[in-house]
Design a protein that fits this description.
single chain; 24% strand; alpha/beta; binds glycine; L-arginine/glycine Amidinotransferase, Chain A; 5 helices; globular
Amino acid sequence: MWTAITRRVSDFISRCELEFLPRSPIDAAKAAAQHLAYENCLRQLGFDVISLSPDPAFPDGLFVEDPAVVLDEVAVMCRMGAKSRRGEADAIAAALAPYRRREWIREPATIEGGDVMRIGKTLFCGISRRTNREGARQLAQATERFSYRVVPAAVSGCLHLKSAICPLGADAVIANRNLIDMQPFEDLSVFDVADDEPGAANVLEAAGKIIMPASFPKTRRMLEKAGFEVIALDISELQKAEAGVTCSSLIFKAEGNRPLTA
Ligand code: GLY
């Protein structure tokens, strides 16, 4: 069954890490309501949502995409670039334990799941403020036995690779070309975000639909014209914490029923 691990919003989300956004007050209750709507959207699409409890020690804990890269064969547990976030991996590793063998990225590597975009057997790995070349190298080492190849891509203008580019099916992407080196993606068809919606490339493919923030209506219309079925969610409060739609879930296929411990 298609499964999504999520983690509910901490009351202390205002203390989150920020790289490219100025800090502004975040209404934790509103953020939690938007996150619940996101979880419910996944449930309505047929996902088994495993919603973990927040931990006050981790204001960014809801961004479960970053502590792990979950593939069909293995979960690669990340050593995150943001030191304040490294402890988040323990709860995610425990939640993944019934489903996947786990491999751990080690010092001096840093890597965050938001920097890893899978298309088929290729893992594009952003080299960013959070992910270094050793992180990409160790990701390749952990996954090569399963026939993955890792392709590094420079990220200069945003938090993670997937802030700037995300898959649309097997051979296309949506991208903001101004934020990353596009050379590694030259074999893919590229849909460009609207000029005045620079953050619109972070979209989540789920159950044949495209989930994206409601704040990017021009890009949404472009995708709909191209034939995609789009679900637009209001994540305005979460966006103040530099959120997109991919980072709030870890999506993978689980075999059989959910174990009683998960
Ligand atoms: N606030 C999201 C992050 O910086 O990791």
